[in-house]
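Extended Data, panel c. Modelled sequence:
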Amino acid sequence: MKLREISAAIEPLHDGWTAQAKARLNSLTKPQGSLGQLESIAERMAGIHRTLTPPAGPKAVIVMAADHGVCEEGVSAFPQAVTEQMVRNFLNGGAAVNVLARSAGADVFCVDMGVAADVDHPRLLVKKTVRGTSNMTKGPAMSVEMAVEAIQAGIDTVEMLKGKGYRLLAVGEMGIGNTTAAAAILSAATGAAAELSVGRGTGIDDAGLARKREAVRKALQVNAPDRNDPLDILGKVGGLEIAGMAGVCLGAGMHRLPVVIDGFISTAAALIATMIAPNAAHYLFPSHLSQEPGHALLLEQLGMSPPLRLDMRLGEGTGAVLCMSLIESAVRIMNEMATFESAGVSGQSDAGSVAT
């Protein structure tokens, strides 16, 4: 399917269902609006699923993994081999996202989008066509055709999980060097200087931070990505797992499923997705504000305000998994809380008729 067709296939939320959800929430035994963002989440879930009893599960976390040629520039505190090692950790259930997913009642699906080594495991979803991107400081990270293929792999993953019965998705990533790619996407799409878009990622020292900023500046200078062309940006300075996550965001919109985005890198993917298909934003839930300085800029660009502020910067989908429980709570409020009428509780008075 062509991206133009994908964009056309993503519909805006159904205003009728969101209005009905708001009326339902206003009838519950609480002051109107008193549950804040939980009410907004419930309204959006009703609009996405087109029902006043939207499901908040079964839940699946998609962790997309790939390697980055820009690691040659010394932009990470960890060697590139850690990508493969962490993929094995995900598959064995030992990573932070696995622990938090078990707490949230979510299943973890790891996808090899372009890891530099081959991992043989029955639970690994292999979608790669190349072992990592090229060094973007010397030329494009990948071709546009490769980026489109990776986007389609993300869309296909959503279709597969919907077929298995999953109804709430979260997306995360693993890829040494991918905060550099995310920073380059941010700078390419918004014009933000490298000093604003680049953070310490895995915990690099001052010298590493300087190398990372220079890598982003050089990549932008060498490739000159068109800020109005998301595929040009993605191909020239992006990553295979970022393209895959953009595909998840688009696939979620196509299949009317909510997807929770994680931190800096997955939000860069969400930006690409919404540039391709603006209506995809309706199906995306931000989760937390990362310590990465560029994350706040990305969220501002998307007009999103995440509910969690936990000073996290791990990635993997960890923040997104935590937010899944908030979404489930919001849905349960709408589905299970008593109304004023059913509970025999006096409703909220008209403020204009109350004596002060």
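The mean pLDDT is 95. This feature is highlighted in the accompanying rendering.
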